[in-house]
Known about the structure:
Elements: H1 2-8, H2 17-40, H3 44-62, H4 64-68, H5 79-88, H6 102-105, H7 129-135, H8 140-157, H9 159-168, H10 185-212, H11 215-236, H12 250-255, H13 267-270, H14 278-283, H15 292-303, H16 317-331
Amino acid sequence: MLRSAVDLTRDLAEARPGIYWPDMLVSAAIGYGSLALAILTQHIGVAIAAGVVAAIALYRALLFIHELTHIHKNALPGFRFAWNLLVGIPMLIPSLMYEGVHTLHHARTRYGTADDPEYLSLALMKPWSLPVFLLTAVLLPPALLFRFAILTPLGVLFPPLRRFVWERFSSLSINPQFRRRPPEGAFRRMVFWQELGASAWAITLLGSTYFLGWRPLLIIMAVQAFAAVLNQLRTLVAHLWENEGEAMTVTAQYLDSVNVPPPAFLAPVWAPVGLRYHALHHLLPSMPYHALGEAHRRLHAHLGGQSTYEQASYPGLFMLLGRLARNTMRKD
């Protein structure tokens, strides 16, 4: 299966700037425009509708952070800098929160183990763990604000605090046992500038309440919380979460991951930027998001509907949530 995936998709492996740049920029523009409307309007219905549009658009723009961890550093000149400047830092999720962390999830000897920062055996937990896991996303905006506006400046004065914050509050991980190693080399310099920018912006946001009141900041945080819940919902169905911590074969890792191919028409909303093909992404981690649909079609045609490849495909979000919930109930 892996050999077929590589052989059939060699011509799709190049990241296309003509797709990446417009997609990211238009998503960000729609998101910020809708967010401004939500803040400025006095009509509650318009504010809610604009806030929903802003959350969905900014969620899509934010998920380009996933692409930044996989594309070659020379593939899209300036894209990482522009994304951080326009999306990552304003949303207080600079790429340092994912780069150097997500690739550990793809390490073949780490996936699904205690050393995987992005894996929890959710299917083996208690039923109440799922709503708790989902609702903790609501706390992300105030947590990020506190991390960059308060803890980052204090970390300059107190190095032990900085080490603690880096180890535990500097990655988009779901494994509470994960401890991040100190940054090194060129990445360390990038972390410095990203933290400086995010800290300055977080302090500015807090300071704006003195002049503008709390309403704009609370709307911003509500939009970000909605986007975070969407991402947490996507995370719940990105894998089956059935591994108990032991190392897994490549095939087992693939089958523990999930594709939601067409005709699931809502998948591009809750799993944008190619993440509806999450199992395929684990086969071909460096494949650009815009090529995953064509790669899936080729593999489906070549391997057939009864192949191992097709066993990772599911019809939609609610079916996957139901399966996960039933598994937790069996463990209760």
